[in-house]
Amino acid sequence: MNDMNDDISTAVSPGKFILLGEHAVVYGKPAVALAIDMSFSCSVSAGEYNSLNGVPIDLSRHPHIQCILSRLNVNNINITTWSDIPSGSGLGSSAALSSSLDAAIRNLTKKDMDLVEIARDSFEAEYYAQGRASPLDTSTCTFGKGVAINVKETDTHLWDAEKEDGRWSISKTKVPEMTFVIGYTGIKASTGPLVEKVRKYKEHNRFASDVIDEIEMVTMQGIDDMRNDDVVSLGKNMTANHKLLSILGVSCNELNKLVNAAERHSYGAKLTGSGGGGCMIALTDRPEIVCEDIRLHGGIPYTVKTGVDGVTII
Ligand code: PMV
Question: Does pTM surpass 0.90?
Fold first, then answer.
């Protein structure tokens, strides 16, 4: 083991939701995600073997952790985690785990704390665990605030990533003050199989590629709306994005029910993340009523704050 001492190092990363462009972003299309005030913390210290929350860890069952330990070339490490991000909900729990773990180990072992390197390691972990991924979630949990992919004229270019399926230019984007309500279906969904489902659909059916091109269009329009502070049009593009994701086959009855219920008092609503369960988001200026509508239709509502910071050592 390298330069570890008796210290404990702790890092915290925010959760996120995808505002526009999920699934299409895996193929290099544009997307935007926002960091939210839910978080995942990781504490690490040197140990006699690898453990997670006090129990020896079988790394083959934790591919994100396996990949981060291997990229940072560390072993025999105690990892303790805390999180208020529901796992498998599309709110970035695995991306926040990867980025907080990577940062905590870098800090413990006195390695380079460059955020681009943390984002790169976290992306590789996500790609390895899912079999295919974009760097959107991991970059948002690392850099915080608003992160855009493959969008021209953004504020600050952060880094570039490339895999056989796509090339991604990742940048910061300014996000105006907006109120979002999240509705959790309570159904845990695994991202990898949903990404694979879309890949197969796209490979065997030209129509799926057309739908992905349409997602690109509504995403670009939605990003312009966000820049122009036009919540009415942004909401319409969010709802259009939801319909296209449903056509791609990644929504489900529970998500559609919450989206329909929330839409009544919102500018727009859509599923967020991989779908198949997990969460939806609604853009609204009537959060209390939307929370109530979500609750009445079987969901768990959260009103979240956006614009929060990325990974931080505490
Ligand atoms: O459900 P989540 O939080 O894992 O989001 C997945 C987003 C996808 O676009 C479906 C995949 C990806 O890696 O971008």
Answer: yes
